[in-house]
TrEMBL record, chain A:
This is C-type cytochrome biogenesis protein CcsB. Keywords: Cytochrome c-type biogenesis, Membrane, Transmembrane, Transmembrane helix. It is a multi-pass membrane protein. The chain crosses the membrane at residues 20-41, 135-154, 166-186, 193-215, 227-254, 289-312, 327-346, 353-375. Residues 163-379 form the Cytochrome c assembly protein domain. It is found in: Membrane. PANTHER family: CYTOCHROME B_B6 PROTEIN-RELATED (PTHR30071:SF1), HEME EXPORTER PROTEIN C (PTHR30071). It comes from Streptacidiphilus cavernicola. Its main location: membrane.
Automatic annotation (TrEMBL), chain B:
Keywords: Cytochrome c-type biogenesis, Membrane, Transmembrane, Transmembrane helix. The lineage of its organism: Bacteria, Bacillati, Actinomycetota, Actinomycetes, Kitasatosporales. The chain crosses the membrane at residues 66-84, 120-142, 209-227, 488-507. Residues 1-35, 551-589 are annotated as: Disordered. This is Cytochrome c biogenesis protein ResB. It comes from the Bacteria. Residues 567-579 have a biased composition (Acidic residues). InterPro entries: Cyt_c_bgen_Ccs1/CcsB/ResB, ResB-like_domain.
Amino acid sequence: MNLAAAESVNSNLAHISNVLIYSSMAVYLFAFLAYTAEWTFGGRSRVARQSAALSARPGESVATAVAEAEAAASTAAPTVSVSVAKAGGGTTTLTRTVAAKAGKVDIVAKGDSAPPVEGAGASGGDEQADRLGRIAVSLTTLAALLQLGGVVTRGMSAGRPPWGNLYEFTCAMTLVAVMVFLGLLYSGRDVRWLGLPLMLGVLTGLGVAVTVLYAASEQLVPALHSYWLWIHVSGAMICGGALYAGAITAGMYVCKDFYEAARAEGRTKGGRWSDICERMPSAATLDKLSYRINAIVFPLWTFTIVAGAIWAESAWGHYWQWDPTETWAFITWVVYACYLHARATAGWKGRKAAVLALVAFSCYLINAYGVSIFINGVHSYAGL
Amino acid sequence: MTDDREAADAQAADARAAEERDELSAAGRLSSAPVAEQDQPEAEVVGIGVLGWLRWTWRQLTSMRVALILLFLLSLAAVPGSLIPQTAASPSKVEAWQEKHKAWVSLFDKLGMFHVYSSFWFSAIYILLFVSLVGCIIPRTWQFVGVLRARPPAAPRHLVRLPVYATWRSSADADTVLTAAHGALRKRRFRTSAAGDAISSEKGYLREFGNLLFHISLVAMLIAFAVTKLAGGQGTVIVVEGGTFSNNVTQYDDFEPSSLYTADSLKAFGFTLDGFDASFQTSGSARGEAVNFDARLSYWLGSDGKKTSGTASVNHPLQVDGDNIYLTAHGFAPVIKVTNAKGEVIYDGATPCLPQDANVTSLCTIKVTDGYVGKDGKKTQLGFSGIFAPTAEVDPVLGPRSTFPAANNPGLFITGYQGDLGMDTGIAQSVYQLDTTAMKQLKLDKTNPWKAQLHPGQGMKLPDGGTITMTGLKQWANFTVAHNPGTGSALVSSALAIIGLIGSLFVQRRRIWVRAVTGADGVTVVELAGLARSESSRIADELAEVALVLQDSAPADRDGDGTDHGEDADDDPSAEDPELTATSLSKER
Ligand code: HEM
């Protein structure tokens, strides 16, 4: 027989977990509708913004950061404000404290170092749309709390980490994605525009999880009984949530980049799509964000693979045997390496690199779902 | 303005821009990455014979673009092996696949599709990639050493053209400003160098260092894999409680050698399986699931060293003399005694049975090769096969089976055969399978086959005389003894690779220049300029911080409005040209 290890399952808690997961899905659905409404109503102030945007040519994106030393009367350390003025409206202010006497110094940044021209955001500055957006964020928070409860009770019901099969993995991974999003929002980052595509992904993920992947709360299959389950699988899970965000931003970057190119040539027609693109963050910001996310995940993904190899070594006696799951983890890793190289190679920057990021994320999905469901290897993970 | 003059102006501007670009790109090379292909002179290559072609090939191979293509090919090449069964992983699956897709077999065989990861084309890709990698690392390492030994590059003449720039007029004299700037930059741990009226400084060398460390670690990892492949190997063996194993090829049930790891390289050690402990859930929905498995061993080094005790359990191999002993399976071995009609014991031993399900319903085969004489007086061999169940229950439909994995009510259900076991045919035969082609089933009478249900201590008479008794019950454990010499170095290099990667991705290399020139009017013009990789949005902030620190020793004149960007800022059309900055920045990559 296989060498298996397990603990008994508390079916009461497992039931509570299921109810919580379903409730969170319902709330996510409302949040999704609220984000959609935000984008829709945000389009109302379209005309005014378009004329403003069209008058701000990309060549004028040279921005000025003004460091203003305000001389204070006496001993108190005067504050110095560094304001970054953005062409096309909107001002961000960074404040610093320094002991300076007087004077005013301009810091001019241009090219890649200049802050890019951002879109007005999903609400497009419309007050009602903005309120909808804030409602959507509250709903997302509520749903995330419900989902957190669902994941925790699931883990408690079996007395082990709540990611022992593909169903649990998906619940936990989507939760990580939402928590990262909320974390960014609450730390003051303006990323509400990520809400709509995120909800779409989370709802799809959870929908597939409860219908196709569902497995009753059970003990672990043999080789999973190891502390490496905490390390290796949670690594894979965090990577999944973050890479999804990286892929969304890469996709949006491609859209926005096409749009900005069209706008530079005066080919924009000003329809609904232009309006949506107009409200997105700038291509440069999306590109950078996508790169940052993918770059942060890459070492973690490398670590996940190495941790998996160490685990495989202690469980099976081989650290690498080209099992389909291992193979696709490797493929995903190599394609992300391609992406990072592409970003560093002049001719491959921009759209080509973004397409590689999307391909790499598809490889991740194939690895997490395609392989577990359709190909049988030593990894006995799916629980299907 | 005439056309002529326009053209001349344009030419002059071009020349100026070109000179400016050179200057800026020299200052701006923050990476020793190979320059993109399009920047390399092609003419040099044409028509210089074999050497030229070799040089050209080498340069292509070590270029970033080819590295990119090879990486992409590597990922593509890894795909088929995940879709088509591989011999190394499961020969039986390969056979099943070949049965189903007969038309493809010969083509796929030629292409090595059943052993993709050791096929010529897969190897070719990764070997080329690693040649490219080495060809990339070596010059980059030298360049990096050069960078470390050189001073930060001198300030470009027109600081105003750099991506981030600040200037102000101050009544402090130039030396004071430069000394203060030097201090401020040192405090921020920039490497600085003063030359003439300017200070150059640079920071973030760890980026390049990390990048090199990462790529070198990849090579080290590949070497570690190669060592494992060439000098590693493993064998599996089933040992019954109380049984002894010594690390010798004849004792293995299955041995996988490699080029440098053969029967002769096996280290001398051995172990006895003192006992096997298993505990199971006895209640709840997970009843019957294992809680733990431990194989208690005593092992010794050399041919007859001192005995040490240890345990091997799932996920926790026992390390002996650098080899790992993994516990990979376990089962039961009923102890069977067979006597012939004269009462002589012709078989006595524990016979491992192979588990078939989670409750350890097992298949048993007992082969008695010598000592039995049939009714007709002729020598014959005996074979028994059947089912062993640790907690036996006879299901009316499914027959005998086990309902719990522990030995609560062990039972052995067998039928017997006599005749030729077929063990002399020369064809290797599994000890766990009975070949009954040349055997006759033992019968009680004309119609009813002989059947036995044995529990420990019970015996049955055989139809032709003699007995079969189950005298006891033992457990067995299956061990994999693996010798993986490269594991340690693979682990160390992967850890270094991750550390290098973190440095390479998250450290920003950047430069800051400060220039201070006191004019004839006694007013000092202070200029600051910064340059960073495009991923860094912090350079403007960093420059602002330095500018603010400098206000202590070189406060900006109140009357100067601070918007004066140096002497030639207003008359130079390219000063504000983001295009120029973009080109000079992207050149370094
Ligand atoms: C074995 C396969 C390889 C893998 C997995 C790999 C992976 C990576 C990764 C993840 C990075 C990103 C780190 C960063 O941006 O600093 C990188 C950067 C880089 N790689 Fe590789 N690499 C491989 C082979 C090569 C080869 C063959 C070359 C040379 C032709 C090369 C040259 C570079 C360079 C120059 C950079 C730095 C780009 C920059 O300036 O930022 N790599 N590599």
